[in-house]
Amino acid sequence: MSKILEAPLSLKADVWTHFGFKAKEGNQGIDKTNAICKHCQASIRYTGNTTNLRAHLQRHNADKLASPQPKKTRDPTQTTLDNTTSKLPSNSVRAQKITESVVHYICRGLSPYSVVENTGFRFMINTLDPRYVIPTRSYMTDKAVQRMYDKVKDNVKSALSSAPRVALTCDGWTSRATEAFVTITCHYVNEEWELMSHVLQTRAMHESHMGSNIAELLRAALEEWDLVSKDPAIVTDNAANMSVAAELAEEIVDAMKPMKIATLVMSKESSPTLSVVAPLHAQLIQDFQESRADSEIVKEIKAAICQDLSKRYMDQQKETMYVCSALDPRFKALPFLPDDEQEEIYLRITAEARRIQELFQEEAEVIPGEEDNHVEDKDDIPASPPPKKKKDLCCLADLLGSTYSAGPAVRHRTTQAQAEKEMSRYKEAPPLSLAEGSPLSWWKEHQNEYPLMSRLAKVYLCIPGTSVSSERVFSTAGDIVTAQRSVLSSKHVDQLLFMSKNLKS
């Protein structure tokens, strides 16, 4: 009689204490075609499940099935994780690093906190480091995430403290679960002339979206983030959205082309600054004037658009837009304004540049005096390599290219001081081509030539032209988070959305 071999340890059912296998011919491994009963030596067909094996025991060896059987023992020479590893203390550097990585994974991917209880996730972590003990969901929610949120919040506050001015976008949006939220995002230009954005907070709006409620929310945010002294500009979407219904008619598509291009320009991934709004606004009003060749429906569409555009901005808002456009080297000539209004904007910029000089007198940098303010001839200034053209600027060039061509701007008289001289040189310099570079890149290259105006440019060119970017980001994020609302408080929703945009890889 051939020897019955023990079933492999991978077969864990209790029935295998009564069955084994025969060796293949020539002792070349185990023959699993048939299981052999240890009590009666019967050969039972084995197909991957134990139903027929258990049935055999009940018919022929019921007494054996009823009595307790010794558990299978492992080969003492077999290496296992249990006898080769010890668990990492929760306060060890390695364990804390892994916990931070798990928090990073949850926040960046907006994953549910319950992922730490997921079998597949735990298997993956155990494979990567079997010594690590995965924290509980309550620990992740109340301690680990809170600790990282406080750390990231301090970093964002520190970055905002060095900004000369900030702009806020305040955006109300609704998830597919019909829950209303308000997200506040902050924008500024850093020392490297990069436009930076930080999501500050997201709040569920259980109250109505009245102006007083939004104002209170903004006031609290400015105080919480120490932004009251930053003279913040605030950008919100107009609640009264324009809607024009039209057929896939060819003349309508052609008539709406300027609006399509403007929409593409304002919906790029990087936040568009306010400087582009006034030129686009003026160009659209001009493009949507009706002509004799227009059909009746096209005339109605153009009239509706012009009527809506004409009431979009109040006088004070227009002045801010014009200053932003004048400080953008692409639009500094302000051709959409009469000569007297152009001069008023230039004078306002000059006055603000002087004010900025006074505010920065306490800094280590000293503005050159009148006697040191000589500017070399253009031929003596080494030419900067032209910036690479970007495809995403082609739309803007198509819409405004005929109005803002490269060439000298109109000269205006200036007679006084540092700011006036800088303004004079700035207006005389060729404008930046619409298809090349960005206004921030231009100011970074020329900040030494215009020390006062470059500071003022940082103050104004941080203002977004639309709040659509945050709406686009959070419409999807909100759906992910609100799916967890049954287990998440409003504070946890705020923390998740904050860190999903501010955590760095």
Q: How would you characterize the overall build of this protein?
A:
The chain has 505 residues and is of the alpha+beta class. It contains 18 helices and 8 strands. It has helices at residues 51-60, 62-66, 93-108, 119-128, 137-161, 211-224, 250-255, 257-266, 277-287, 296-310, 315-326, 339-359, 394-400, 417-428, 439-446, 451-460, 468-482, 490-502; strands at 5-6, 19-23, 30-37, 43-45, 167-174, 180-189, 195-204, 233-235. It has a 4-stranded antiparallel β-sheet with strand order 1-2-3-4, with helices on one face. It has a 4-stranded mixed β-sheet with strand order 7-6-5-8. A hairpin with a 5-residue loop joins strand 3 (30-37) and strand 4. Helix 8 crosses helix 13 (394-400), helix 11 (315-326) crosses helix 12 (339-359) and helix 12 (339-359) packs across helix 16 (451-460). It is elongated and about 110 Å long. 27% of the residues are buried.
Secondary-structure map with pairings?
Layout lengths: L4 E2 L12 E5 L6 E8 L5 E3 L5 H10 L1 H5 L26 H16 L10 H10 L8 H25 L5 E8 L5 E10 L5 E10 L6 H14 L8 E3 L14 H6 L1 H10 L10 H11 L8 H15 L4 H12 L12 H21 L34 H7 L16 H12 L10 H8 L4 H10 L7 H15 L7 H13 L3
Parallel strand pairs: 5-8
Antiparallel strand pairs: 1-2, 2-3, 3-4, 5-6, 6-7
Helix pairs in contact: 3-5, 3-18, 5-18, 8-13, 11-12, 12-14, 12-16
